Description:
Elements: E1 6-9, H1 17-29, E2 33-37, E3 40-44, E4 47-48, E5 53-57, E6 61-65, E7 76-81, E8 84-92, E9 95-100, E10 104-106, E11 113-117, E12 122-125, E13 131-136, E14 139-144, E15 147-149, E16 156-159, E17 162-167, E18 170-172, E19 183-186, E20 189-194, E21 197-200, E22 205-209, E23 221-227, E24 230-233, E25 236-244, E26 248-258, E27 263-269, E28 275-287, E29 301-305, E30 317-329, E31 333-337, E32 343-355, E33 365-367, E34 399-401, E35 409-412, E36 414-425, E37 439-444, E38 450-453
Parallel strand pairs: 1-2, 2-5, 3-6, 4-8, 5-9, 6-10, 8-13, 9-14, 10-15, 13-16, 14-17, 15-18, 16-19, 17-20, 18-21, 19-22, 20-23, 21-24, 22-25, 23-26, 24-26, 25-27, 26-28, 27-29, 28-30, 29-31, 30-32, 31-35, 32-36, 35-37
Antiparallel strand pairs: 7-8, 11-12, 33-34, 37-38
Amino acid sequence: MSAVSLVSIEAVDGDNTARLQAAIDALSASGGGRVELLAGIHICRGLQLRSGIDLHLAAGAILRPVPDYSAYGHTTVSVIAEKSDRGMIVARASRRISLTGPGRIEAGCESFIIGDDETVGTFIPAEFRPRVVVFEGCDEVEISSVHISRSPMWTLHFVDCTNVAVRNVTIENDRRLPNTDGIVLDACRGAVIEDCEISTADDGICLKTSIGPDGVAIGRCENILVRRCAVQSLSCALKIGTETHGDITNIVFEDCSISSSNRALGIFSRDGGRISNVRFSRIAVDCNETPDGFWGSGEALTVNVVDRVTERPAGAIENLIVEDVSGQMQGAITVIAAAPAGIRNVLLRRIGLDQQPGQLGTAQSYDLRPTGADLAPKADGGGRANAWTRGADGRVIGLEDYPEGMPTVYVAGVAGILMNEVRITRPTPLPQGWNAIDVVFETTTPDGSGAWQN
Length: 454
């Protein structure tokens, strides 16, 4: 962003919110420019960016938001996520706004942890946590070069924005704190995410279409390019869904590396929107098992359609290309249509993976979460809302055993899938609980019973 004016802010002791917000407001009113935070620690409550403003964190500058949910009552947002309606830095209906580096935002997640759930290996989060950045209905948005650490909840959330650029951003979150997604594009049109490094306990880069306060989809998500990003995730590194109220189309992920992760690539249709024209290209993956309370366990690719709410059937997934994927996985590749909308026209080509056994054995089930059961877990089922719960048998609802054991690729209910040069190596002899058949196709007969093709 070219600044027409510059205001430099020195670090001072105590709460600096009023001085920062006054500088932002005044500069925006005079035509815009750069508000630069100089080296040092800047403590503040919520800030609201205005049109024409570049909030710039100079080298050595640390923006340290107050670690208290009540401090953000004046920076609320319309889209609620995990009960949160607040952000540390927000913007609404603004144009030409940016947040640039090379300084840091230290978001203080440790103040939003209330316990430790050893059964699934995660911290227990506070009921209410703010997101770090939420931009709503904005145009010409840029976030570049900044380093963000210890987010208490979603880190960067773009809602109904157009012309978005996220470049050279580093996100380092606690890998045991749930819901700390790295970058979320929510019903955005025209976005580029490139050259970013993300390490988090939840989704790395996630595209979705949430529901608005009026009960309808915020909008469409389309024309998105994600490239040259390095992601570590204990949920899904590069993901579409699960909130899919509006259509999602024309999406490209390419030249990315995924390490120390649970799932690598994922598409999850749940809420009525159609997902189409998606391509994953030239992706290096490293996927490992996790405890059963996490979604998934070691899958290089997971694609599924599930009706989460009966009165709002999930939308179709159509025209998917996954190509030039290499690395290792402890789970399998799964493409599963468990709802009438279905999955159509899938191409898997030039995929070379090494399938290795994990230490937990959790990869031997495939995962259809989130399901309707996760929306409101029963008191006697344990778990956490919108995450997991256990049935009367003690098993996590949504985890299903592979028929005859875990294959390399499991396809169920898909109309039109082509695999070309898919080579997955497996140990010899096969570990216990693995399917002797590498690629398993399941279809259904007219009477609804299962029929097998291999």
